[in-house]
Amino acid sequence: MIYTITLNPSIDYIVPVDKIELGGLSYMKNDYKLPGGKGINVSRILKALSTESIALGFVGGFTGKFIEDALDELDVRTNFINIKEDTRINIKLKSDQETEINGRGPALSDEEVAAFLKQLEKIKEGDTVILSGSKPPSLPEDFYEKLIQQVTSQGAEFAIDTTGAALEASLSYKPLLVKPNIHELEALFNVKLETNEEVIAYGKKLLEKGAKHVIISMGGDGALLISERGTYKAEAPKGKLINSVGAGDSMVAGFISSYLKSKDSVQSFRTSVASGSATAFSEDLASTEVIKDLLAHVQVENLK
Ligand SMILES: Nc1ncnc2c1ncn2[C@@H]1O[C@H](COP(=O)(O)OP(=O)(O)OP(=O)(O)O)[C@@H](O)[C@H]1O
Ligand SMILES: O=P(O)(O)OC[C@@]1(O)O[C@H](CO)[C@@H](O)[C@@H]1O
């Protein structure tokens, strides 16, 4: 089974406005709410790719109920720990540019965290765990590492999509996939990366530190795959950018869904990029049809 872990889910409140008047009044055009959080997005795209998963994490209050109901409606399996505080609401402002304002997240009690850790005891060899996104501030800094220690000692594989120290600490546990975007890679090494060669050089450091596959996403400039099999570049398919929220999560889902079935890292990279771009070209996360259509348009070049 694939388990996605979203420690800090969100309602994504999508707010399109023609023009934002800072300090003034603007009216929304057609606002809507989506169940959000990176692992939850991964589960939704896995579903679109006919891959079963169970979404784990913490949800609470009326916002948490919205997420559970929405995922139920979408037929995405969940087994969340219900918490006392409300799940956060993240604002995604869309005008000529996209602006995101994310909540920090609720405080979790010791009992809630203990119930979650207990739940992970059922994870076993053959399972894959995908850990994605930020953690609520009340959890300790090394919480992701503790989770990784636990699930790998039980024999499971894992992929991780987070930033900074938590990403760095995960590498020695040999993640199947890490997917920093170019800005996260720059922040990790405190550098500015201008050329593909520079990006590849720093991506390779993640491979040397233990990652089995490294995908570096670069928005409309496509993505790089660095693996033992070699280094590959994919151009992003051309299209109208509608929504980049969840594009990175779609890439993670695309790669894992394809890799667990085929063990073919290059084919999985193509599915990953098609899934990312399909979401970028959609109002919500991508549908099966848009991913399939784009798959034929993703060109992958072997850079050796
Ligand atoms: N303008 C675009 N045109 C085509 N594809 C795009 C565009 N923007 C993003 N994508 C696709 O989505 C993938 C992921 O984009 P990006 O690098 O922005 O990820 P990210 O920063 O992790 O995303 P997020 O955190 O918003 O989910 C890209 O590799 C590409 O395939
Ligand atoms: O604050 P985090 O956990 O880093 O990111 C949360 C988030 O921005 O990521 C998803 C898109 O990738 C959204 O659904 C959600 O609002």
From TrEMBL:
Pathway: Carbohydrate metabolism; D-tagatose 6-phosphate degradation; D-glyceraldehyde 3-phosphate and glycerone phosphate from D-tagatose 6-phosphate: step 1/2. The keyword Electron transport does not apply. The keyword Transferase applies. It catalyses: D-tagatofuranose 6-phosphate + ATP = D-tagatofuranose 1,6-bisphosphate + ADP + H(+); beta-D-fructose 1-phosphate + ATP = beta-D-fructose 1,6-bisphosphate + ADP + H(+). PROSITE patterns: PFKB_KINASES_1 (PS00583), PFKB_KINASES_2 (PS00584). Its EC number is 2.7.1.144. GO terms for biological process: carbohydrate catabolic process; D-tagatose 6-phosphate catabolic process; lactose metabolic process; small molecule metabolic process. It comes from the Bacteria. It is an enzyme of class 2 (transferase). Gene3D superfamilies: 3.40.1190.20. Residues 11-284 form the Carbohydrate kinase PfkB domain. Keywords: ATP-binding, Kinase, Lactose metabolism, Nucleotide-binding, Transferase. GO terms for cellular component: cytosol. Belongs to the carbohydrate kinase PfkB family. LacC subfamily. This is Tagatose-6-phosphate kinase. The gene is fruB.
